[in-house]
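Form P-L/3: holo structure prediction, ligand flavin-adenine dinucleotide.
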Amino acid sequence: MTEEKKDQGAAGQGGQGGEGGRKGQGRPKVPRQSMPEQAPLVRAKNFDEVTLGYTEEQALLEASRCLQCKKPFCTTGCPVGIDIKSFIGLIQSKDYLSALAKIKESSLLPAVCGRVCPQEMQCEKVCILSKKGDSVAIGRLERFVADFQAKHGGGRIPKAEAPTGKKIAIVGAGPSGLTAAFDLTVMGHKVTIFEALHKAGGVLVYGIPEFRLPKAIVEREVKVLEQMGVEIKLNYVIGKIKTIDQLMSEDGFDAVYICNGAGLPWFMGIPGENLNGVYSANEFLTRSNLMKAFRFPEFDTPIKRFKNVAVVGGGNVAMDAVRTALRLGADNAYIVYRRSKDELPARKEEVEHAMHEGVQFKLLTAPVKVLGNEQGWVKGLECIEMELGDPDDSGRRRPVPKPGSEFTLEVDAVVVSIGTSSNPLLFQTTPGLGQTKRGYIEVESEQTCRTTKKGVFAGGDIVTGSATVILAMGAGRSAAKGIDEYLKTGEWWSKGAL
Ligand SMILES: Cc1cc2nc3c(=O)[nH]c(=O)nc-3n(C[C@H](O)[C@H](O)[C@H](O)COP(=O)(O)OP(=O)(O)OC[C@H]3O[C@@H](n4cnc5c(N)ncnc54)[C@H](O)[C@@H]3O)c2cc1C
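OUTPUT (holo model):
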């Protein structure tokens, strides 16, 4: 029997301990441990974290379900290749700090990724137990060890190599920039991050709400970087205050890593979109999360409290916006999505949470026109019902309008959450920076992160388009390697070297 078959065999034994114990040696079957969370109707009225994390007892039970496969598929399902089998093995031995250290070999932000990674599409999807529909809860275990250290202490500030004398500028303090800064600092380089907003963290602070990712977690990670010697210049828009060329020629930076995300919102292009009460999801979420409008008057950014809110879109961003609208006091918060539930791109958990909290899903529905009152404020959203036709280029069935099915949703706000793209500022101010057809920064490859401009690297959403936290972090790690190699060899790829 091959090793792979043996693992599958163990998983398939069921009852007599196949799933619950290693090697299926008569241990009782342990079900996947659910995570405690605030009751739906309670949490829909507050901004506290929804999920509460495993207790130690639950974490140990959940870890005991891991079969410690000889060929662990879970690691191949992780975009940054975390040694999942080893970290869960360390939890089984109650060595939580070593488990955390094992994750940190590949991922800088386990407390973040344990909360927001789409594990069901990645590591957990290929877990051998997923064949039975209940994979090991890898993300929850990742979160457990990170939270354990935050609560009990015991971590240490990583030591950097001897200073190399090289200076690196990083544009953007999102997950990609923070990861690159960490790795480059450990390599001995001097790193300065330039961040346009007044807080570091990128989408982790301005986009993802407190109830899904408490900001104290991001602040903790940023503080570690500062303790390691990373300088973070806030309220500093590259392309306005200084250009990339100035950073290199005037300020003496030896290399630049651009990871400024893809935060420019798309709109629908339908009549009425410029009425008062129409927001992009990014603006709506930034006002609430970053400017803490939900805590007005303690924070001085007010946000209008709408009674009936329609959020157009079906991704994670749309779920965050609609759940925020509910928490801000909306009586009716709708998701308007043109395909069916099966095609919703948001994480399954986020969709379920939204449904339990009372969000109303208008599926197979597309907006046609935003309706306004005489004062120019939104008073409704005209929609049309859709049905699914043949698959389109994305492989998903194309939504087709049903003639004569128009109807009006009475709402006083519309939040548009149909995607984002790159901000043109850096292309306009950086001669020689290549752009792809889709409008993102052109790179030699996502492994080297070299742009068409010598000494300038790019990664994260600004290269891939809107993606995930873990992919952005992976890009930061690749960029750090690429930059270190460039600083040692001075080599560049043939297309660039401008
Ligand atoms: C609301 C929302 C919810 C999401 N939910 C999830 C989720 O559940 N799971 C998941 O995996 N992913 C999620 N994502 C996607 C994920 O957050 C992104 O893929 C990831 O943050 C990209 O990281 P990044 O570092 O490339 O860019 P960002 O996080 O966008 O950070 C870029 C930073 O660059 C700064 N910047 C921009 N221009 C300049 C400039 N000219 N000068 C200086 N600084 C600049 C920005 O202010 C920002 O701080 C979500 C995204 C959003 C918007």
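COMMENT: The first helix runs from residue 3 to 12.
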